[in-house]
Amino acid sequence: MKHISLLIIFCLSAFTIQAQKKDTTVNKSITITRKYQPDIHHSNKVVSIPKMRKVTINKPAPQYLNISTSMPVSYHIQTLQAEQLQFKQKKHYQGFARIGFGTPLNTLADLIAPIYNSEKNKMNITLSHLGAFHDKKQSNTNLNFDYNHLFKKFKLYSTIGLEHDFFNYYGDIFNNDLIIKDINQYQWWQLSDIDNHFRIHPQIGIRSLSLTETLTLDAGLSYKMFHSYTNKLTEHQSQIKGLLKKQLNNNQLGLNLDAFHFIYNSNENDFNTQNNDYLNYSIIKLNPYYKIEHKNWFLRLGVKTVFSISAGKPFAPAPDIAFKWNVIPQYVSLAGAVTGDVIINSLDKTYKENRYLSPQNRLADTYTPIDSYLGATISPINNLIIDVYGEYQLISNPYFYVNKHYTRSGDDFFHNRFDVVGENSAVQKTAIGVNLAWNYLDKVSIYTKTKYNRWFLNQQKHAWHLPKWEAKLGTNIKVRDNIEINSQFDFQEGRYVLLSNANGIKMKPIFDWNISSTYSYSRRLSFFLKANNILNQKYQLFNGYDVEGFSAIIGTAFYF
After folding, report:
1. Beta strands in 249-365 (DSSP E)
2. I need a labelling partner for 309 at 20 to 30 A (CA). Which of 21, 81, 410, 428 fits?
3. Domain 2-559's class?
4. Helix, strand, or coil here: 6?
């Protein structure tokens, strides 16, 4: 209650502060996006909207928690616009800087700075950092250099991205009776309690500006390097991507191309990676399609073909069919899709999902031959949008995280690293959900989301660590032109973990409430306060790893 009282006092005190300048005209927005979310390849879901009312409905995808914050903005349920806390860029200012400090000791920093801007050249630097430095240690820092050059008919774009992720394995270990074991008793593991992950991501490409009035081209080359220092494991990922679209009157003919090549380096004599076969392999994805467009509807007809060389399924086809129909423009629309894909389970992707993964795991790519969706969007009154949708998936090679099991000297125990388990045959997954978003005069925004997931598994009793029920409630209140208050509540239920009991053990439900407030002192300067997990709930997203309890961070943002 002491923490909540302090938060309420701060928010109320903001009402009495008078800004020196009342001109807070907003001309464009910059959204500061944390790079803690996994790089998940979404299927090509369609936009389900009535005319002039824009709400994007995408396939929900799992995203996992960082210990220094509570529930991330987009965990399983895809976000609506009202959920995004935006720091607004004032007119004539191109740079942005934000810094914050909190308790327990945690830090935040963001920077967007133009280095060189001219009519044809733009060079920027961006920095983001979020860290926690107490018993639950984790520090993630991203640095990017961007350069764009405008030619007469093309735009050259390039980026060099660097990322460092430092953390400790603070999770508990268990025996068969779920009694927490002392990790110091098992030094024979030769496992460090800290790790460092490094990522490098340069890319370069060209995008057409006006080849012709009907032809669009986008082509690029990128490289990703992931390295786990403690596990002595490195992944090199090269990618060639291409997009070609030809406008045919009101219709469109297109082709998407992605080609990947993976090279792995590991220490064969190291305990962490022994008995694991990291094969170099390649994947080629082709997606030709034809899109028929009319005033109130469109229909996309295509096919996805995936070829794997040296590993995985040699040939994996999937349909690519999607539609949207504005049944009653501005009031009712229908949308649906039957598609599929191969999700590449690279080390870069899986270690972003679960940084505590044991390096002795090499995940096969996940093939989803059918990924279907049907939804309706209804807007009965102005500024109120209701989305109702259902999903069906047929999934080959699904995987679920479980605590790593060891047996030594007749003693069974479960470690704070994670293995993966899956299914030998394809499984089915269904889901239904309802989303609602309401905005009143741009002063008050409210959104709610509810989703129910059901897995039909053959070998596993549950989809370990994944919820059956998910719900989210959020509000954004613009108290004055220069004061905003945001609130978000997250709920998850029906999650199980696999330990000694083959039927699984039910995890505690998630109740997570976060509040933030932003005060714009002038056109250049603003202040913010964010309180996470104000109910101080000790829930877990990965078994053995309690999330941070109540935490608060205060800081300032400056525009230049």
Report:
1. 251-266, 281-293, 297-309, 315-328, 332-343
2. 428
3. mainly beta
4. helix
